[in-house]
Amino acid sequence: MAVGKPRPGDPERLGDHRIVGRPGQDAVRPGVYLGEADGAERMAIKVLTGGGTP
User: Which of these, 17, 41, 52, 54, is most buried using a 10 Å CB contact count?
Assistant: First the structure.
């Protein structure tokens, strides 16, 4: 899987996970990051934002 570098303004951490990049060949998917926790495998993290009513 291709991984792009984090962009300016991307978070450095989300919870216990350090952001190490953006997954995907174009690496422009909004709110999707590649994170890794201490001693854990890397995983994709999707950040959801509110704005609507259920």
Answer: 17
Alpha-carbon distance of 23 to 54, in angstroms, equals 29
Global pTM reads 0.74
Q: Give pLDDT tens digits for 27-54.
A: 566 789 999 998 888 899 998 877 666 5
Q: Which long-range contacts (CB under 8 A, 24 or more apart) does 38-46 make?
A: 43/17, 45/14, 45/17, 45/19
Query: Smallest Cα–Cα separation from 36: which of 52, 5, 7, 15?
Result: 15
Residue 21: count other Cβ atoms within 10 Å of its Cβ.
19
How far, in Å, CA of 20 to CA of 6, rounded? 7
